[in-house]
Amino acid sequence: MSVTELEQRLAEFADRVAALPPSEELAAAEELVRDALAELGRGRKRRDGGPQREQKLLRQIFRTMPVPVIVMDPSGTVRRINNETTRLLGSPAGYLIGRGFPLLIESSERAAFRAQLSAALRSEESTTFETRLNHQGRTHTVRLVLSRLRMPGEPQEMVAAVALPTEVQLPEPPDRAQAPDEALFLAAARRHELLSRLTRLLLDEESLREPVALIRAARLLAAETADWVIADILRDGVPHRSAVIAPSAEPVARLQRAVEALPPADAPLVAHVLATQSGLIHEMLTDEGLLGDDLLAQMRAGSLLSVPIRTDDEINGVLTLVRLRDRPPFGLADLGLLEEVALHLGLALRAQRSFQRSSNAADALRSGVLPRTLPDIQGFETAAIYHPGSGLRAIGGEFYDVFPMKGGWGFVIGSAAGRGDEAASVTSLVRNGLRVMSVWERDPGAALRKVNDALVAQHTGLFVMAAAGFVRGRKVRLASAGHHPAALLQPDGGVRFTDGGGVPLGFEEGADPATEELTLAAGETLVLYSDGLVGSRSADGAGYGEDRLTEVLARCANQPPAAVVKAIEEDHRAFTGDRIIDEITVLTLRRAR
């Protein structure tokens, strides 16, 4: 815009001010505008600066005008403010630019302001009215003068607002002897409690095992701080709508289905957050198409927050919260809280994916070290239980097997002194190696010794406690490599234990397992168990131990193996209160009558 055009606009503006009802404030404003016109005339006559100097002059005049002037677009978004406006409101220009001017107006008078703004856009005349501004703890009673600006080169018209203060209410100075603002403390405490509850929710084991973390977090946010919660998760770089929580007190089922069905890739808001990788806040919504179509209008949305669900190195999706028009709008504190929530959620989703990958790998490995069913063995009954532990201890350490061999059959039970995929692969080596060795070796001790040497040669750094037996007729040849002694339950309820002992597999080359031979009478039951059973502890720290196992077995006299393992399982669950941390394995075999 040239100086001549600016002179014309300012002259029109001065005429509009002069046409308003007379007052001292308006007279002062008219005089200031006339002075600005005179200065422009003098600058034009000098003709020593060209267009660039003219623009600098215009900016300087705008900045130094001694009355607050705000330039906003038709939606009420602040585009420019001058120095006097920042002095009046107490905020730097950079903070207010891009924000909705109606947010500065007392909430009870915002509707009236919007009506006056619409009137100014429709009319060639300026509109004036009295209203109250609330900002930085101050209340300003002002007379606003709104005038439409047509600016060449601009795609839309602007509105200039002159704020003429008539009354300013300053906050009382704080009394240092008084306690701090209780409301601020309560709000901070509520945000802290919400974040703590979310953390506990995301760290729950079920949130890791099952894909429920996202929906649980969305429900918590909807209950505590928003009316609508929408979560969109990236899959192969494309956002997919994963959770939509609607107000429970309103009949919005059809609208909820519409929100769920709309592709998030079509929502300008989601695209913006993913592109900028930063959150945004709309304290007062002016664009009702941010979620696509007119969903925000149908929701009766008043304010909105949207942040990326992320970790430090990747974006997982977008989390959006909406409050209705009858609720206080979101503020900067809410934006900071939601950014922290989204970071927690991103870390939880990453942990869930990692846990599920490990769990799937463990399931695949475990299927190679645990038999699907126990074989039928003539003259014997068998039963077994296996329970995975919790967390990382659920993966891979224990195994058992029952298998046919020449002239009889064999069995093995064991556990690796380690966890994870490597432990599961080592136990698989022991189980399958013993099956191979049973083809050539008639003694389980010799078979375990060769498996031990093979394990040492692998340099895994892990060792395995194992007990193996070869059964021929009534004779059981039993070998132990650092395993707990087996229990022998007799028909009269007596319980005795084998010798056990020996050196664990993988500890040193050439180590000999401890061996012994048993003759099972009819009705006798051999019980083999893992360290996860006798080594487990109750909530108060007491150990389960072999003494308690003896008491349980004594109550199982003359019961089949399936009943014995069930009794052990139920007693252990009662002892630990369902807190099964380590893996637990029990294998029983009973000589039939």
UniProtKB/TrEMBL annotation:
Pfam families, alphabetized: GAF (PF01590), PAS_4 (PF08448), SpoIIE (PF07228)
UniProt KW keywords: Hydrolase
Keyword Cytoplasm recorded: no
One annotated GO molecular function: phosphatase activity
PROSITE patterns: PAS (PS50112)
Domain PAS: 54-124
CDD domains registered for this protein in UniProt: PAS
InterPro entries the UniProt entry points to: Bact_Sigma-Reg, GAF, GAF-like_dom_sf, PAS, PAS-like_dom_sf, PAS_4, PPM-type-like_dom_sf, PPM-type_phosphatase-like_dom
Entry-linked PANTHER family: STAGE II SPORULATION PROTEIN E, STAGE II SPORULATION PROTEIN E-RELATED
NCBIfam families: sensory_box
Protein name: PAS domain-containing protein
